Structures are given as C-alpha cells and as structure tokens.
Amino acid sequence: MFDKILIANRGEIACRVIKTAKAMGIKTVAIYSDADEHALHVQMADEAVHIGPSPANQSYIVIEKVMQAIRQTGAQAVHPGYGFLSENRLFAEALEAEGVVFIGPPAHAIESMGDKITSKKLAQEAGVNTVPGYMGVISNAAEAVHISNEVGYPVMLKASAGGGGKGMRIAWNDAEAREGFQSSKNEAASSFGDDRIFIEKFVTQPRHIEIQVLADSHGNCIYLNERECSIQRRNQKVIEEAPSPFLTPEVRKSMGEQSCALAQAVGYTSAGTFKT
C-alpha cells in the first residue's frame, strides 16, 4: 500500500481521489496553477504544490513540472484523473524511470489507445467496428479538403490526442473543412500539446455509447455494461444514463465483447472506457 500519492489533476476528480485516499489512510498531494490557488482540492489535500501559470499548457500538462512536484513531496504513486496527462505515454514512462507507480494502464497501452489514429487501426485489426475515415495524419488544410471529399461530406475533423470534445469540428463543405482543420489543430495543440488531426465520416443522429471495462495483468477482462452519453453540448457530455434505453441485449453483448477484445489486443490493464 502506498503512503502518499500525488493527484495530477484538479477540480472534482481530484477531490474524489483525495476523499478515497483519505478513507484508505493514504496521504495526498495536490498540484495547482495560479487560477486554482484557492480551489477545494488544494484545501483538501495534505500537501499542495504550485506548478505554474493558469493555462494548462504551462502547468498541468507540463510533465517536468509535475515530476518536480513528485520529487519535492516524495509521492510514491500518481493518480492522473482524466484528461491532462492521463493518456500521455511520455508521462507514464517518466514515472516509471523515477520508480513512481502510475495508477493507470501501462505506457504501451496508453500509446496505443490514447492516440485515436493508432487505436482505430488496432480496432480494425481486432475485428472491432469503426467509423470509416482516413486514419493517417493530415499535414495541411488543402490535404484536409481533398480527404474530406474522398470520405464524403459531412465529415468530422478530430484531434488524435486527448478528448473531452476538444479539437473536433464538423465540416459540410470545402470551406468548413479548410477552416475546421486549422481551428482543430490549434485547439489540439493548446489542450493536449499534440496538433495531429485526422478525419472520419460524421454520423448524423448518432448515439454516443460508452463501455466500461476492467482488465488485469493476467489476461482477464470484463465489461460493466454501458453508459448512454448522447445528450451533449459542443461535443461534450451533459448527462450520462445507465443503462442505455436504446440498446438491445444482443447489441449490448456485442459491444461489450468487442471492447474487451480491443483491451486485450493492446495489453490494457486497469479501468478503461471504450467510446462508440
């Protein structure tokens, strides 16, 4: 059991981790930017370390600043929460090099599943259904327009890294594809430090279903049914409902089995969410 963990996140997710750690008798370390100096998670933690200016790309997603906080406090493990560095392979590798436990999946699984381009290719190889599109990195707006025409409008331009609805734009024509490429690229760079963009077919009137899986290091994986996340604003979930009122038992079983197949294909361990 760890004596002290650092939470590499902020807000509600950090508060929830801190509450659980305290219930288990584990000391906690919070990190915070200028904007979060008086935030609740900072007050709740046993220790708190300032890591930089308010923008996330100057604080929460700067690996070396988080590593300095770990060294300063002697934290034995890191809980990344979600977003920020939770899907960053380099962060997991940096922790491993320092002998600090990453409370999450191994670095190779993060590299495979945290990158949407790579994960979609792996999903296809594992026999998992995917949305059609172009799975390579797009270098410029002209190429984005060309590929959009090949895929067929409407299309969705998406950031390969991260999530949370950031770095996503819908395009219905060439002008929107050109503009959407640049805005997606800029937002992805700002939010995730990675500006790679890919394109897939935009599905009108879709259902956003998430499957939760738990996998261990012995090759076992189970799925915990689904969450209905289709009510959204700006590509971000507003309400999650479980179970989904739209899935049949047959579809639920198929989606769960495909999620586990993909998790096992990449050697995923810990808890994970597969979004469909």
What does this entry look like structurally?
There is one protein chain. The strands form four sheets. A five-stranded parallel beta sheet has the order 3-2-1-4-5. Helix 7 (141-151) crosses helix 8. A hairpin with an 8-residue loop joins strand 7 and strand 8 (168-171). With 276 residues, the chain is an alpha/beta fold. It has helices at 11-23, 40-44, 63-73, 89-97, 107-113, 116-125, 141-151, 174-192, 249-265; strands at residues 4-7, 27-33, 47-52, 77-79, 101-102, 133-134, 155-159, 168-171, 197-201, 209-215, 221-228, 232-233, 236-237, 270-275. The protein folds into three domains: 4-104, Rossmann fold, CATH 3.40.50; 132-201, Dna Ligase, domain 1; 205-275, ATP-grasp fold, B domain (D-amino Acid Aminotransferase, Chain A, domain 1). The protein is globular. The model has no long low-confidence stretch (mean pLDDT 90). It contains nine helices and 14 strands. The longest helix is centred in the middle third of the chain and has 19 residues, at 174-192.
